[in-house]
TrEMBL record:
It is an enzyme of class 1 (oxidoreductase). Its EC number is 1.1.1.195. This is Probable cinnamyl alcohol dehydrogenase. It comes from Zea mays. Residues 20-347 form the Enoyl reductase (ER) domain. Belongs to the zinc-containing alcohol dehydrogenase family. The gene is LOC100192586. Keywords: Lignin biosynthesis, Metal-binding, NADP, Oxidoreductase, Zinc. It holds the Pfam family ADH_zinc_N. GO terms for molecular function: cinnamyl-alcohol dehydrogenase activity; oxidoreductase activity, acting on the CH-OH group of donors, NAD or NADP as acceptor; zinc ion binding. The lineage of its organism: Eukaryota, Viridiplantae, Streptophyta, Embryophyta, Tracheophyta. Homodimer. Coiled coil: none annotated. It catalyses: (E)-4-coumaroyl alcohol + NADP(+) = (E)-4-coumaraldehyde + NADPH + H(+); (E)-sinapyl alcohol + NADP(+) = (E)-sinapaldehyde + NADPH + H(+); (E)-cinnamyl alcohol + NADP(+) = (E)-cinnamaldehyde + NADPH + H(+); (E)-caffeyl alcohol + NADP(+) = (E)-caffeyl aldehyde + NADPH + H(+).
């Protein structure tokens, strides 16, 4: 371990134990292979997954753990067989860095659902090594899991697209939530929720934000462009919207009731869950009587990710971010737990390791 932490070719910050406290660390990235892209990491977004695994909330953390799976950077080297990238390209890496590339899901570009998908950090790669994420100076990945960021799109704002953005974009496209004039409800206004609002408005939807906090009303409407803001605990406000929504995206990870939201959907309406509450409790009539659908979704496939990045660039869709240096990360993670961020922390990696 001493050799890993002192002599590695990649500088990073890592958690050593379930306290989740991060501190400087070094380790060795693999050499670039024929199909690989090596990129200098310029920015890395901060996701709640970084909290979950640094603090061993899923009981599978492998320390020292380098988190980060919203990576934006610049290509510095490509393998001999790489066709899609060249040195100097602006690129992103998301939540996974490998898959079997030959199963039913991989064959339709849904590598995120591959049984052998390898997470960007805390995963076991095909060579048996533990993957380490974007809180580091560079990363080496196969070109299949690298995405081109169009010229002119700010790298700092590109980083959160690779997890927060794609997590809401994927189900919106799958369930045809891009039909102008239709209505969308967004539950929760954090890193994911604010991107759902932005996509909804870009698709021409009438967007209603549901929150437990009145303090978010002004930003929901005046900053993000939502058409309506509802305090979800206000039964009168909720009652006034019954059978009014075509779609709902639920980004809330805290436990909350589901039946009140289903009552807001029109006949045939769709509610997609992208958060992780501890359980789902609902009456079957909430689905059956309105012919409604409850679906789940997690990040997106490789074609969807590139499509989403291109869509954001073409439509000037940018996450709302707060840029920090890596030495602020422990405070940032604490603030993330307390929901004190508008709406995504992004680490300035390039200037943190000088």
């Amino acid at each position: 371990m001493a050799a890993e932490s002192e002599n590695g070719n990649c500088k990073a910050w890592a958690a050593r134990d379930p306290s989740g406290v991060l501190s400087p660390h070094s380790f060795n990235r693999r050499a670039v292979q024929s199909g690989d892209v090596s990129l200098k990491i310029i920015y890395c977004g901060v996701c709640y997954a970084d909290v979950a695994w640094t603090r061993n909330k899923l009981n599978d953390s492998k320390y020292p753990l380098v988190p980060g799976h919203e990576i934006a950077g610049v290509v510095t080297q490509v393998g001999a067989d790489v066709k899609g990238f060249k040195v100097g390209d602006h690129v992103g890496v998301g939540t996974y860095v490998n898959s079997c590339r030959d199963c039913e899901n991989c064959n339709i570009s849904l590598d995120n659902h591959c049984p052998k998908a390898v997470y960007t950090f805390n995963g076991i790669d095909t060579d048996g090594t533990v993957t380490k994420g974007g809180y580091s100076t560079h990363i080496v990945v196969h070109e299949r899991y690298c995405f081109k960021i169009p010229d002119g799109y700010p790298l700092a704002k590109a980083a959160p697209l690779l997890c927060a953005g794609i997590t809401v974009y994927t189900p919106m496209m799958r369930h045809n939530m891009n039909q102008p004039g239709k209505s969308l409800g967004v539950i929760g206004l954090g890193g994911l929720g604010h991107m759902a609002v932005k996509f909804g408005k870009a698709f021409g939807l009438k967007v209603t934000v549901f929150s437990t906090s009145e303090s978010k009303r002004d930003e929901a409407i005046n900053l993000l462009g939502a058409d309506n803001f509802v305090i979800s605990s206000d039964t009168q406000q909720m009652e006034s919207l019954k059978n009014s929504l075509h779609f709902i995206i639920d980004t809330a990870s805290g436990d909350h009731p589901f039946d009140p939201y289903f009552s807001l959907l029109k006949v045939g309406g769709v509610m997609t869950l992208v958060g992780f509450p501890s359980e789902i409790k609902m009456h079957p009539a909430s689905l059956i009587l309105g012919a409604r659908t409850l679906s789940g979704s997690v990040v997106g496939g490789i074609k969807d990710i590139q499509e989403m990045v291109n869509f954001c660039a073409a439509n000037n869709i940018y996450p709302e971010i707060e840029i920090i240096k890596i030495d602020y990360i422990n405070e940032a993670l604490a603030r993330l737990v307390n929901r004190d961020v508008k709406y995504r922390f992004v680490i300035d990696i390039e200037n943190s390791f000088k």
